[in-house]
Amino acid sequence: MKRIFIAFAIISSISCSVYKRHLMVAPQPHILDSIMQTPQLQPFAAAKKARNIQIIYTQVHRDENNRPHFTDYHYNVNDSNYFYPASTVKMPVAFLALEYLNTLKHLTVNAHTPMLTDSSFKGQQQILNDAFSNNGAPTVANYIKEIFLVSDNDAYNRLYELLGQQYIQNQLTAKGYPNAVIRHRLSVAMNDEQQRHTNAIRFVDTSGRILFEKPAAYSNVVFPEQPVALGKGYMRGGQLINEPFPFTTKNRVSLADLHQMLRSVMFPNAVPAKQRFNLNDSDYALLYKWMRSYPQSGNYNPKEQWDTYCKFLYYGSEKVAPNPNLHIFNKVGDAYGFLIDVAYFVDTEHHIEFMLSATISCNSDGIYNDDQYEYETVGFPFMKQLGQAIYNYEKTHPKKMQPGFKMLMIP
To answer: Is residue 1 part of a domain?
Structure first.
């Protein structure tokens, strides 16, 4: 990308103390309580416990120097109430992959360097090309594009294999997310032992010369205990098992952690240094581009991946032309009946910005793996109504200082 990325201004120590204060004080619930009692959302409010609805809404206020300050509002947020994070785990893994590449820059390896994945253990795949790449070469940059445009599972799996369990867990813990657990690939049948093994990987130049070779690895990481089982049954091999479905060895990331991870990338200088991902200007530019883009910029089939395909909050599952003035930097997830979206909204026409993250369970019968989930009738309508309600609220509450968005490459 040739467009120049302009970094955020350095936040003063006063701003950081304001940020910490917002983390420590009790969440202010009244705005979300009021919004959830509107006619469109009241039915969901009545079922908030049964559907494990959790919402975090962050107002962003700019000072005279365009520095952001935050006010967080929580609705029914409880880290102990497990939800399966599904594809939202791809977001921190994408951040970590760019961070990892910055440790290899002395070897002239970057996000656009071809990355070849070998098969090193039972169940692994060898990947030497990428059908969605312009030149057929698999790269971290292309995988990140595929992750944010269409939530591609294979792209995530390649980055998971590049990093390995141990690196992912160590880095998340160091950044203040000790309870976040990302321990497996997606949509592949592997046991816990296989998930601990990750592939040998080679970065090569255009002539095929090896620039860096990462050997196959094994993870000895000890994950935090999470004895979670949900529902009343699940399908296995075509048979109904009449007992709660175990999530003990599944990924786990709380909504608060996902929300904060996104904030740390959208507003890196407004969070404590230890929480930031080690990214450079080109990394941010790459992320900002694809996090707000639509599938057609990646030449996907519009019948299968329409432009608002991965923008649950505000659009739900509607196949409509996106608002050209509304930019949504986000990551969605849906699996096992859970629907999640973690987003930062920017409207250049009305000069508003806010963060909104939400999750809802769409599995009324309590049976997992039966593909009888209520995404279309419950989940997507909830996400659409919630996103639009917060957006309309923001439009009617003008900010004292209008934000500038040059750092996001938005006019």
So the answer is: no
